[in-house]
Amino acid sequence: MEVAVNQEELYTGSSGTAKQVGPLDQVRDHVTVGAVRTSMLMGRVLIVDDEEHVRTTVGLALKQGGYEVLAAADGEEAIAAIQSYPAGFSVHAIICDIDLPKVNGNELIAFIRATLPSVPIIVLTGHPDVQGAASLFKQGVVDYLIKPAQAQTLLDAVRRAIGEQALLG
Fold first, then answer.
1. 164 vs 168, which has greater pLDDT?
2. Residue-wise pLDDT tens digits, 60-101
3. 55 Cβ contact partners less than 8 Å away, ≥ 6 residues apart
4. CA 100/CA 35 separation, integer angstroms
5. Domain segments of the chain: what residues?
6. With respect to CATH, is domain 22-27+41-168 assigned 3.40.50.2300?
7. For 15-42, what is each residue's pLDDT tens digit?
8. Within a 10 A sphere around the Cβ of 56, how many other Cβ atoms?
């Protein structure tokens, strides 16, 4: 499957038709960014946010940066996805909102730390809280970004998180 990322459409499958991003949609095999086609992805990132436009925008920025993207609309969906992989859920980083329905971000982060302790977590929130941020860093969150984050800020945070984890790994 070839995936083209541009401003007019989110991405296009091999049939040439635009495809809407849905929960846990995956971009695989080849990514075309501008005129450059690459089969080497920078890593896989899970985005957990209840706002569809945030998942779409963040996902687009990451795909343009060469990342494979998985998306979940809430903490419950993210937990179900992680638990559905018997051999282990494989992502290189997770971007997570705090104000999530069903299972909130704090509970999700605790689950991720217990289940995937080496996966870096980046919080992306529209409701910044200094005390909350300090608590999250103590839980192992590697970065705390405020919505709306610039695409380059997101890419830099993900690169740093994955790079630091690779050094520790």
1. 164
2. 999 999 999 999 999 999 999 999 886 777 899 999 999 999
3. 21, 47, 49, 71, 73
4. 37
5. 22-27+41-168
6. yes
7. 333 333 333 433 333 333 343 444 457 8
8. 17
